[in-house]
Amino acid sequence: MNKAFVRSFLLATILVPIVTIANPSYCAEVDLTIQEIVKKVAPSVVTIEVYDMSGDCVAEGTGFFVGQNLVLTNAHVVDGAFTLRIPHMGIKKASDPQPRLLKSDPEVDLALLEVKGFGSPPLAMATGTDVAPGQQVVVYGNNYEEEHLVSEGIIRACLPEKLIVSASTFSGHSGSPILDMQGRLIGVNRSSLSASGINGMAFGITVPIVEKFMRSPERPQSFPLAGTSLFWPRLWIRISGFFTETFGWIFDAGEWLFSVYLKLAVVWIFGFLTWRMARSIPKAMRALKSPAGSPEKTWVAYFVLAVSVMMLLLAIFAGSLFIAVLLDGVPILDVIIWFILLALLAYFHFRCKALYRRLKPIKAGSENKNASGHPIRVKAGIDLTS
Question: Which element (helix H / strand E) includes 269?
């Protein structure tokens, strides 16, 4: 064997342990700077826009890629959404206007969406890595004037099912990734106390819970195209907005109080009409026994006609809400309740309409008409039966 080779091998065997002991970071992972972490994770973080039935964007949250075309966020971000849209801040004009909800678990507050058109890389998870109090973290998300916000802090506490971090987070940070100093996911931001005026207290979902959620079965749900709206909700929003802007200043108490006033006014009007109708029922029952063509029976006929028209309008409104309930993917019990309400309103409308036809006043001269419609021949005394 070559003596030079043997000497080199022995020298390397001695020197490598010495270098490793003198410089522990030789084999350890090197922390990244905050700028490097942001650059690394920015392509994987997206904004989630939530739209209501009137087609208006009512809330925003954050999500991030955990797999090919898979975005993870909080369940409360997408809960109750009529439609969703996911734009990507780092890719101009890139958005998915119709993502699909694969599964959602309100108990752990996680939801998984399927998107298309991005091709963004998933975030790496710090699986099996110990997370300890005092460890530095970075939170990246929210949407402030088309830019994500960067927050830094430390882990205040590690509880069995959640993390408490000192990074400043706000409502739009829901679903944002909590990252270690290698840019790996160690938690999902869930909530904070900033709305109560307490900063530096954010709560996150741990990686083990995320991994367990990812293994749970899927229950896919589709949404309409983002911005799609239903007629009645959109009409109500526009009308209430008009009255608020026009007359809200009279009360000098803001939009909220005026909205309460409108609701109370509607309740009072319907209550007054119901009370008047209830008082009219005994009188209407007595009038039904009156001879045909009497003023009392004529009054009852028009009263029944008004009730029929009211039932028709309520049935149309209930039908629109029934369609909205079907499109919203609510539980089957809600669908059944709305269907029963719609059926009852339609039934009372047709019953009132049939009763009106029996009670409506007979037009003058119509009693003299025969089947052929010749009142003149009847008046002249001609026997039409011969």
Answer: helix 254-288
Q: Tell me the sheet residues that pair with 204.
A: 163, 189
Q: What is the pLDDT of residues 337-351, one digit of tens each?
A: 778 888 888 888 888
Q: Which residue has tokens 């209930």?
A: 318
Contact yes or no for 54/88 (Cβ under 8 A)? no
- From CA 307, how far away is CA 44, in angstroms rounded? 59
Query: Could you give the residue range(s) of every CATH 2.40.10.120 domain in the chain?
Result: 34-219
User: SS3 for 153-186, per residue?
Assistant: EEEEEECCCEEEECCCCCHHHCCCEEECCCCCEE
Kindly report the pTM of this predicted structure.
0.59
Beta-bridge partners for 141:
149
Q: Which two tokens stand for residue 247?
A: 């007359």
Three-class secondary structure of residue 244 per DSSP: helix
CB 64 within 8 A of CB 72: yes
Q: CATH for 34-219?
A: 2.40.10.120
CB distance 297 to 306 below 8 Å: no
Beta partners for residue 138, in sequence order: 152, 179
- What confidence tens digit (pLDDT) does each residue in 258-306 have? 667 667 776 787 777 777 666 666 666 666 666 655 666 676 777 777 8
* Residue 235: C-alpha distances to residues 314, 317, 374, 375 (Å): 16, 12, 51, 51
User: Do 178 and 189 meet the contact criterion of CB atoms below 8 Å apart?
Assistant: yes
Strands 110-114 and 100-105: antiparallel
**Dist. CA 354–CA 46, nearest whole Å:** 58
Spell out a b/e string for 297-323, using b for 16 or more CB atoms within 10 Å of the CB, else e. Answer: bbbbbebbbebbebbbebbeebbbbbe
In which region does residue 254 sit, left (phi positive, over 0), alpha (psi from -120 to 50) or beta (all else)? left
